[in-house]
Automatic annotation (TrEMBL):
Keywords: Heme, Iron, Metal-binding, Oxidoreductase, Peroxidase, Signal. This is Cloroperoxidase. The keyword Oxidoreductase applies. It comes from Sistotremastrum suecicum HHB10207 ss-3. PROSITE patterns: HEME_HALOPEROXIDASE. InterPro entries: Chloroperoxidase, Chloroperoxidase-like_sf.
């Protein structure tokens, strides 16, 4: 990944110099890829140097509870405006995210919704600190930050509403209550945190599939194509793999609540004991569920969506030949 980013950033830089010859001399920032760290063991997070500080009115916060938490504790800049290197470092320090995965996500966020020329992306919305790209190569408006719907942020999220029908940036109690319902119903028991309190893969499978069906009915502009399906199940896998207490790898409903509701690390929490990569997360395996549910993509009920139309004839496993691949 480091290599890909190293290739992409000079490319963008070269592109920007073509469009506006003066740009290269006027404050472009070279993106730094930090070395792979050896500090990747279990540790208690936060440390004393990173207490929770609530965001102020000017601080950017967005749809990702993990990034919001890192900014609230100062692992990311408190104003929510970060460089590629800061994101890679912070996601490792706070969550033990593996170097290449962190680089891929930070790179995607930067290219899709940030200003790669200045090496800055907002973990929330548009910021006066992040101007339009040189030559306005991504349109006349400043980059939207990861809150802006359509590239990084997408439909059928767990705790944010679809952009077309509600608030796609801030935590939604009603959706979270639904997740708690599925946790109570399908979660594991714990003598410490209670029966039905441990969030499992099964919980996420059932909840995500229910959210998809729900949004198919409610959102006439639903976009749930293969790319979004992968990312959105990836998010569920992230919650299980990065929010769990590193000491035993389990994620209690109470711990999950601290990240989602309060955007703070729970007391006495430990980051995972090994670097977390996509290997082993199997987001698509999660989408396939227990075998009773097939992969599901598409648009609103009765519509295949652009991607669905292309793929439906290639796959005879359609459940109803209508909207499920
Ligand atoms: C990122 O971490 C590396 C050590 O792994 C350190 O040398 C570097 O200064 C850090 N960068 C930032 C922006 O904090
Ligand atoms: C929790 O579940 C166990 C079985 O796993 C059961 O024996 C116990 O009574 C349950 N506790 C409560 C409070 O429901
Ligand atoms: C969130 O913070 C409030 C105030 O500190 C606390 O009472 C509540 O228990 C916290 N909720 C979770 C889920 O951690
Ligand atoms: C994490 O696990 C340790 C060891 O079992 C426990 O002492 C601690 O309370 C747990 N933390 C949370 C947030 O569950």
């Amino acid at each position: 990944m480091g290599r890909i980013v190293l290739w992409i950033s000079p490319l963008l830089w070269a592109l920007s110099t073509l469009t506006t010859p003066a740009a290269a001399d006027s404050g472009g920032v070279i993106i730094v890829v930090p070395p792979v760290s050896t500090d990747t063991g279990i540790k208690q997070i936060p440390d004393a140097a990173h207490p929770y500080v609530a965001p102020g009115p000017g601080d950017q916060r967005g749809p990702c509870p993990g990034l919001n938490t890192l900014a609230n504790h100062g692992y990311l800049p408190h104003n929510g405006i970060a460089s590629f290197e800061q994101i890679v470092n912070a996601t490792r320090e706070g969550f033990n995210m593996e170097h290449d995965l962190a680089g891929a996500l930070a790179g995607f966020a930067m290219l899709a919704r940030g200003n790669a020329f200045l090496d800055l992306v907002s973990i929330g919305g548009t910021s006066s600190l992040i101007p339009v790209l040189p030559g306005a190569i991504d349109g006349p408006n400043p980059p939207g930050g990861i809150s802006k719907h359509g590239r990084f942020e997408g439909d059928v999220s767990m705790t944010r509403q679809d952009a077309a029908i509600g608030d796609n940036v801030n935590f939604q109690n009603s959706l979270y209550d639904e997740l708690l319902l599925y946790t109570g119903r399908f979660g594991d028991d714990s003598p410490i945190t209670g029966n039905g309190s441990i969030v499992t893969t099964k919980v996420m499978q059932e909840f995500k599939y229910a959210r998809f069906l729900e949004d198919q009915v409610q959102n006439k502009a639903l976009q749930y194509h293969v790319g979004r399906l992968t990312l959105s199940y990836g998010e569920a896998a992230f919650v299980l793999n990065f929010f769990a207490n590193g000491t035993d790898g389990t994620l209690s409903q109470q711990t999950m609540g601290s990240f989602f509701r309060n955007q703070t690390f729970p007391a006495n929490w430990h980051r995972r004991s090994t670097p977390g990569s996509t290997v082993g997360f199997r987001p698509l395996g999660m989408a396939q569920g227990t075998g009773t549910k097939k992969e599901h993509c598409g648009g609103p009920v009765g519509h295949l969506g652009t991607w669905g139309q292309r793929m439906v004839h290639q796959d005879e496993r359609n459940l109803n030949k209508k909207y499920i691949l």
